[in-house]
Structure formats: C-alpha cells, structure tokens
Request: fold
Amino acid sequence: MIKLVMFDLGGTLMMSDEDFFTKMYFKLLTDKMKDHGYEADDLVNAVWGALKAIATSGGKVKNELAFWDSLSAYYGERLERDRVFFDEFYDTEFDKLVVTGMPIKGANDVVKQVKAMGIKTALTTNPLFPKMAIEKRLSWSGCDKANFDYMTTLENSSYMKPHPKYFLEVAQILGVEPSECLVVGNDVSDDMVAEKNGMQVFLVNYNISNKKGLDESCYPQGNFDDLIMFIESENQSERI
Reply:
C-alpha cells in the first residue's frame, strides 16, 4: 500500500519557470551582496560551486554544511562575518521572487485529499534553500504547510535531486518502506529517478520538464484527479 506521497513543488504544485526563477534569484542576490563587497560574477560562480559541493558530498554531511563550507573555502574568513547579509536576503529580497510562481488550481486540495486518506505527505522540493525560503515558496503555491508531515530544506537534507538517496532519506525519516512510497513530480529526470529505490512514481503531465529527452510514456501520469484515482486503485488492489 501507498503510505507516503512525496510532492515536488515547482512545476507540480506551483507553476514555475525555472530559468526565470534562477536568473531573477541571482540578480536579487548579487544586488544585495554588492553593497558588502561581493562582485556579481564571483558570487554566482561561488554559489554554483557550493551547489556542486552538495551534489558531490555523497550524503556525508547535511546540505547546509556542504554549501557553507564551499563558500567559506572560496571567500575565507570574511564569509562568517557576512552570513548575516545572506540571512537578510532570504528574509526580505527573496520575497520579490513571488512573481516567478503561480498557484495551480487544485494543488492544495489534492494534498488535503491524500492526507484525508490516512497517507503521510512530504514536500520534496530540491533542498537548495533554507527553511525560510522553502516555506515562502510553498506559500506562493497556495498550499498549506500544515498538510505536510515533512518538507526537505537545506538544513535537514543530505542529498539533492536527482540522487535517488534523496528520496530514501525522506522515507527513512518518516518510517516508511520504499515500496510504500509514491513520488509525484513533473520532472522526468529529477523525480522519476525515485523508481530506482523501488518506489512508485506519478508524472504530473500538464507541465512536464524533460530536458534530457527521456521516455515519458513508461510512467503512470495524469492530472490531480488521475493521481487520486491512481492512489485509490493501488491501495484498493492491496486490500483485495
């Protein structure tokens, strides 16, 4: 039976243009930090390097530590003094990114429906931002964070998508076997990789992201109504 449903955020529970978001994010961040002596191109390169450090850490440390250790190696002691300015960025300027996302009709309702079925829910958006920023993005989607039993953030995660162990970590934290998990997302590369863990997957097909041109036809897919029917069908067949 399906006992845990993991929901992606951008492109799944919220319309989001990834390229627009990334461009605007770096513009806002570099504008904020230039007043504190951080050159724009250097900072962008340093942040990309820190994200690569997360991807290659092998789960040995939390993403937050891998991220800041990488930035510290790049900038040295000054970074410890200036971290407060990064915190200020997420507290204030990050709010302007609200224009990069739009609520999807029925998104909040489908999470509530899953919860009402007695199934655990997790928000499995790529944990590249601190909790404050993840919660803000979730609020832009119109989804209530109270409907999620767990959400991945920079602070609490040891992997990032598309590493299969990213999803395994969530299952372990919530005490659910991989075979009892369903991963719901719109990204063929980032989300459907959960199949490698023995998890079920469902491709939300109104906003599919498939930059690698992989075969999409092999995955169960559809809209939110189709998702609910899929879960009901899977759990009903287990009862028979």
Remarks:
- The first strand starts at residue 4 and ends at 7.
- The chain has two domains: 4-16+102-239, 19-98.
